[in-house]
Structure formats: C-alpha cells, structure tokens
Amino acid sequence: MRCYTISYAAGYICLSAYLSDEIMNLKDFPVTATIPVQWGEMDAAQHVNNVIYLRWSETGRIAYFKRLGYDVSPGGNEAGFILGWQDCKYIFPVTYPDTIHLGVQVTKIEKDKFLMECHMFSEKHNRIVAISQHRIVTYNYTTFQKVDIPDGLRNKIEKLEGKIEEDDIIA
Prior knowledge:
The protein has 2 helices and 9 strands; from the N terminus they run E-E-E-E-H-E-E-E-E-E-H. By secondary structure, the chain is of the alpha+beta class. The strands form 2 sheets. Strands 4, 5, 6, 7, 8 and 9 form a 6-stranded antiparallel beta sheet that branches. Strands 2-1-3 form a 3-stranded mixed beta sheet, with no helix packed on it. The protein is 16% helix and 42% strand. The chain has one domain (2-168): Hotdog Thioesterase (Thiol Ester Dehydrase, Chain A), CATH 3.10.129. It is globular. The protein has helices spanning 50-67, 151-160, and strands spanning 2-8, 11-17, 23-25, 31-36, 80-90, 99-109, 113-122, 127-140, 145-146.
C-alpha cells in the first residue's frame, strides 16, 4: 500500500491507495495545487464527472509550466507545449463538498516530449482519488511542427525535479 501524506492548513493527513509499498509525500512533488470541488461538477451519478479530473490535471500542468517560468500561450516561446496524449486512472469517486490536492511531476524526458503525472488527493476522504498522465510535446506554433526540447527548458525541468544542481545547468 502506498501512503501519501499531505499538509494543508488544518494539519497533515495520510492518503492511502493500493498501488505499491512505496511511501510518497505531497512534499515529494515539485509542484502542488489545491482546488475546491464545486457542486456543479457532479453528474447524474452524484459524483464528480470524469472529465473534471482531466480539468484538475490541466490546472496542475499549467501550475507546473508557470513554476518553470514558461509562457503557456501558443507562440510565447521558441518551443510551446501541446498535449499529445493523456489518460486518467480513476481510483475513488469524489463528491461535493471536498478539496482536491494535486501533486505534479515530470517522470520522463525525451528528445521532443516529456511525460507528466498528476496525482489527485481528496482531503475529505483522506486518500488518493486519481492519477493522470500526460505526454507533452514541444511544438513550434509558427511552423506547426514538433521541435526538440530546448536545453534551457530541459535544464529547468531537471532542476525543478531535483535531478541536477544549480551548478550543473548549462547557460
């Protein structure tokens, strides 16, 4: 069993999921965000609609890009981002009222794309509720073609993920 511990204003909670024996802490994620569940996000089945989880993970992605100091608007950089693929493992239904805590990380970097994960935790239920994965492709919105990840961006991701030290960054 994987135990996730998150910190919020009222203290600490342990979020459990039957994933592995690894213990993770929300502090282990380089980027976090908190989202209140809205009553209107529930569907006829009386739980949050599945598409909302993807919106939450989008919020996590954008928070990650902003933490990198990267412009998320198309054409704002030499290489922009485009979502190439996503999926979501729904683990536990969420209902209103609740607060969702997101933990976001990059798990793999390739030549022209990287894989992100967004782990979603319910404060009310004291557990993980979903894990979403996203393949982000670096894309030139002027030429309409994918491009290699610029070295500066790769270095920022690796630094944020704790994979390289400040002194290792190539200017």
